[in-house]
C-alpha cells in the first residue's frame, strides 16, 4: 500500500509528460484523466513528429482503437524511440479479438520491442494467448473465467517478459511472478465510452515514475475507486463528470479506505 501511495504522490509532484497515440473516440477522456492525476498529456500522432515528441516524454501509450495507417506508422516509430531511450511503454490491445488487422499489427509491434505493460480486456488477452480466439466488438466476453484469464495472463507475462493487465469486473495484473486482482470498480464504467482507454492512460502516467506492475495496480485501483464514488450520479453524462472529479480530488484516505486487492500464488490458479 505504501508503494501505491508513493506512486500517486510522485506523479502529482513531478508532473511527468505522457505521450499518447490513441483513438479520437477517447482522446479527450485520456488527456483529462492524465491531467486529473497530476501528469501532463501530449497526444501527437503524425509520423513526422512522433520521434521528436517521444524522446521528450516520460512514458508512452499506444492504443490500437480505431486504428489508421498514420497511427500504425507512428506507433512503430514511437516504440522504437522509446526502446532507444529507455522510456516506459503501454500497448493497449483494443479490438484485437475482433480484428485480424489489429491482431497482426500487435504482433508486429511486439517484434519491435517488448512494452512495459500489455493491457487488454479479458477477450483481448485471450486473443493474444489463443491465435484463433475471436469475439464480437471491443467488449469483453462475459463467459471468460477469471481463473482461466489469470493463467493466460501469467503465461503471457512470462513469455514476453512484461506486465500483463487484463481488465474486467476483476482486474488481473501479473508480471509472471506475482499476480494481483483488483476488485474496485462498477458496471457503470462500461456505460460510457473511453473508460478502458483511460485506464491505459493512467497506467502510462504511473509507469512514468514506477517501472513495475505496481503502476498498473495503482491505475486499476484509482479508476475503480473513482468509478465507485461517481456512481451516485443519475445518468451517464453526470457519471462521467463525477468520475473526472474523482480522479482529480481522490484523497489518500479515500484511496486507502476503499482499495480492494488480493494477491494470489501463481501455482494455485
Topology:
Elements: H1 2-14, E1 17-21, H2 27-36, E2 40-42, H3 50-56, E3 59-63, H4 69-85, E4 88-92, H5 100-112, E5 117-121, H6 122-129, H7 146-160, E6 163-167, E7 171-174, E8 179-182, H8 195-207, H9 213-230, H10 236-249, H11 252-258, E9 261-264
Helix pairs in contact: 1-9, 2-8, 2-10, 3-4, 6-7, 8-9, 9-10
Strand portion, in percent?
Answer: 5-15%
Low-confidence stretches: none
Helix content: 40-55%
Main sheet properties: 9 strands, mixed
Number of helices: 11
Mean pLDDT: 95
Description of the structure:
It is a single chain. This protein is an alpha/beta fold. The chain has helices at residues 2-14, 27-36, 50-56, 69-85, 100-112, 122-129, 146-160, 195-207, 213-230, 236-249, 252-258; strands spanning 17-21, 40-42, 59-63, 88-92, 117-121, 163-167, 171-174, 179-182, 261-264. Helix 1 (2-14) crosses helix 9. The radius of gyration is 17 Å and the shape is globular.
Labels describing this entry:
11 helices, alpha/beta, 269 residues
Can you summarize this structure?
The protein has 269 residues and is α/β, with parallel strands linked by helices.
Amino acid at each position: 500500500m505504501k508503494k501505491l501511495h508513493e506512486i500517486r504522490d510522485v506523479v502529482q509532484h513531478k508532473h511527468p509528460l505522457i505521450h499518447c497515440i490513441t483513438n479520437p473516440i477517447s482522446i479527450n477522456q485520456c488527456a483529462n484523466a492524465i491531467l486529473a492525476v497530476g501528469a501532463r498529456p501530449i497526444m501527437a500522432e503524425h509520423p513526422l513528429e512522433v520521434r521528436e515528441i517521444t524522446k521528450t516524454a516520460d512514458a508512452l501509450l499506444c492504443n490500437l482503437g480505431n486504428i489508421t495507417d498514420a497511427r500504425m506508422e507512428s506507433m512503430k516509430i514511437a516504440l522504437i524511440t522509446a526502446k532507444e531511450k529507455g522510456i516506459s511503454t503501454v500497448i493497449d490491445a483494443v479490438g484485437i479479438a475482433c480484428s485480424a488487422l489489429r491482431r497482426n499489427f500487435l504482433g508486429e509491434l511486439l517484434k519491435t520491442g517488448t512494452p512495459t505493460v500489455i493491457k487488454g480486456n479479458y477477450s483481448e488477452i485471450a486473443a493474444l494467448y489463443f491465435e484463433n480466439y475471436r469475439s464480437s466488438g471491443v467488449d469483453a466476453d462475459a463467459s471468460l473465467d477469471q481463473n482461466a484469464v489469470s493463467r493466460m495472463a501469467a503465461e503471457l507475462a512470462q513469455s514476453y517478459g512484461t506486465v500483463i493487465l487484463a481488465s474486467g469486473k476483476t482486474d488481473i495484473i501479473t508480471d509472471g511472478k506475482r499476480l494481483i486482482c483488483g476488485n474496485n470498480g462498477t458496471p457503470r464504467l462500461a456505460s460510457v465510452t473511453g473508460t478502458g482507454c483511460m485506464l491505459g492512460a493512467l497506467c502510462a502516467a504511473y509507469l512514468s515514475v514506477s517501472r513495475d506492475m505496481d503502476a498498473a495496480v495503482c491505475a486499476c485501483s484509482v479508476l475503480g475507486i473513482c468509478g465507485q464514488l461517481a456512481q451516485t450520479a443519475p445518468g451517464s453524462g453526470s457519471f462521467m463528470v463525477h468520475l473526472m472529479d474523482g480522479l482529480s480530488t481522490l484523497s489518500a484516505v479515500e484511496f486507502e479506505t476503499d482499495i480492494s486487492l488480493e494477491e494470489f500464488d501463481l501455482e494455485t490458479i
